[in-house]
Amino acid sequence: MNLLAIDTSNQVLGVAILKDEQIIGEVVTNIAKNHSVRLMPAINQLMNEVGLTPDELNKIVVAKGPGSYTGVRIGMSTAKSLAWALDIPIVGVSSLEVLAYQGRFFDGVICPFFDARRGMVFTGVYESLVDNLTPIYKEKNISMEEVLAKLVDEKRRVLFLSPDIAVYKETIINALGDLAVIPEGPFHIARPGFLGLAGLNRAADPTHTLTPNYLRLAEAEANWLKAQKDNEQNG
Amino acid sequence: MKKDTIILGIETSCDETAASIVKNGTEIVSNVVASQIESHKRFGGVVPEIASRHHVEQITIVLEEALQEADMGWDQIDAITVTEGPGLVGALLVGVNAAKALAFAKQKPLVGVHHIAGHIYANRLEKEFTFPLLALIVSGGHTELVLMKEHGSYELIGETRDDAAGEAYDKVARMLDLPYPGGPHIDRLAAIGEETIAFPRAWLEDGSYDFSFSGLKSAVINKIHNAKQRGETLKPEDIAASFQASVVDVLTTKTLRAAKEFNVKQVIVAGGVAANKGLRAGLQAKFSETDIPLLIPPLKLCTDNAAMIAAAGTIAYEQGRRSGLDLNANPSLLLK
Ligand SMILES: [Zn+2]
Predict the structure, then answer these.
(1) CATH among 3.30.1120.10, 3.90.330.10, 3.30.420.40, 3.30.230.70 for A2-95+191-223
(2) Is A2-95+191-223's fold the same as A96-188's?
(3) Which of A15, A114, B86, B163 could be joined to A122 by an S-S link, Cβ 3.0–4.6 Å?
(4) Does the CB of A212 have a partner CB in chain B at under 8 Å?
(5) In this structure, are B157 and B220 located in the same domain?
(6) What is d(CA B40, CA B46) in angstroms, rounded to the nearest whole number?
């Protein structure tokens, strides 16, 4: 079983190849450079290095967001097209879940998040149980303030994981004090190997209809829906 | 006997997700287009983020249909071609990344294609080219005159300095409260109206083949505005007819002049506005007095599609042009 994992949903570009449960190759960069230009060459090079040809792949796993809309689409278009052309299964995994893997053995709750600007974050809260990560708060586009208020009520230790941790570090410590656990740099970067692991035994998604998990409507659509609602109320 | 060249084309530069298979650059084997127009209507124009989202939802479905309709397998396909620009960057990225994935998965050559080269080559699916030829490209994003001395060679001799012709149509349509897309509605009204208002024609400097439509657009807006202030009513069909007369006059006159100066053997019209009846009639009238053949493709090849990308891509492929797996979307790609 050869599995290719692809993550371009945020600044990290990650590609991993798993042979069953073993990572046999992994490429990770965390730089603000064009995913569209670099993704296919990264896949190609890694495949060459581990000595696999495209037709030897058995499964594609892709980080489906949330994250940068464009970044998510680059990974998703690539992954869907690969899975379709090679006629192999595809699995989409939440980008937040991949990040939560860095806290897989944390005794408490895990809060991975991505900055969504203007005080908003994309986040979900997970708990690490014996054999898996279990979501306890549904993934949402929500204000950090609201998330922290809920976490304060939990009265448990919370592990925060985010490439954007610097933006909210102070706010988090002010709200949770000693209950907040904020690890060092490398823990905040999603690893494509974990993405592969998360998708390894998961049932396939339908290739054609698998879509990004934006967690947010396009602005024009949100405005349009609001206008429709206002019209209904006035008319 | 020479083996057939079978090319897969992919186009996602704006609001159509399209895939097609073309044989020898001249024969459509399959041509699938998923239009998003219904989705964008509610916004009065194409919203780039929404367009990009639709492309991701449609891309593999459209590809599968194109292969099924052609009843062909991967071993028959010689190369993957895709629009690399110009267009909406987020929209282009979906097609470009899909094309790269296919090229890698099936170990096929990859060729990036210029969208306008595609529009020009849509005509070759109807009739073989004779060089030198002149192409007039008119669409929502383009107004260009391109001279071609041979296959795959494009010399830009004129372009718009501000708005594209199609853009001016959309703006005037909005002033007249016509639904999106406005071009066909203006065309329809113009057919029943009369040219009662003398709108300006932007000829620019002597000998220039460039275009400008922003002055005309402002003139139309001012005319409507002033009439409103004076409590007069202008007939929308007359505004449409007068506006369209100005656009058609400039486009046809410059095209004819360029055709004569460069001694071309063919004039071809391409792009969404090539579907405009007023423009078609204007061009036919002007060129019927010459012996230069005028080619205008059927409606479904005027608007964005992937057969035109595969057709232009066939020439690029045959000329040995290749793109790497680092191919990127280029929203302001130049035609070379
Ligand atoms: Zn076009």
Answers:
(1) 3.30.420.40
(2) yes
(3) A114
(4) yes
(5) yes
(6) 5
CA nearest B202: which of B211, B194, B190? B211
Asked if residue B314 and residue B235 are part of one domain, the reply reads: no
> Distance (Å) from the C-alpha of residue A188 to the closest C-alpha of chain B?
27
Flag whether B194 is in a domain.
yes
Contact A220 B49 (CB under 8 A): yes
- For chain B, the average pLDDT equals 95
Domain A96-188, CATH 2.70.150.10 — does that match? no
What is d(CA B162, CA B172) in angstroms, rounded to the nearest whole number? Answer: 15
Best B41, B64, B97, B330 member to test A by mutation, with max A CBs in 10 Å, is B97
At B83 the three-state DSSP class reads strand
Interface test with B, best of A43, A55, A73 (most B CBs within 10 A): A73
DSSP for residue A223: H
SS3 B221: helix
Q: What is the mean pLDDT of residues B317-329?
A: 98
- The verdict on B157 and B292 lying in the same domain is yes
End-to-end CA distance of chain B: 32
Which of the four pLDDT bands, split at 50, 70 and 90, describes residue B141? confident
- Structure confidence at residue A230 (pLDDT): 86
Q: Note the ipTM here.
A: 0.96
> What residues in B contact A222, CB-CB < 8 Å?
none
Same domain (yes/no): B260, B154? yes
- Domain ranges (residues) in chain A: 2-95+191-223, 96-188
Which residue ranges of B make up the annotated binding site for substrate? Answer: 137-141, 170, 183, 187, 276
Query: Can you give the pLDDT at residue B1?
Result: 62
d(CA A192, CA A63): 9
Residues A78, B107: C-beta atoms closer than 8 Å? no
Supply the range of the domain harboring residue B284: 131-296
Amino acid at B258: A
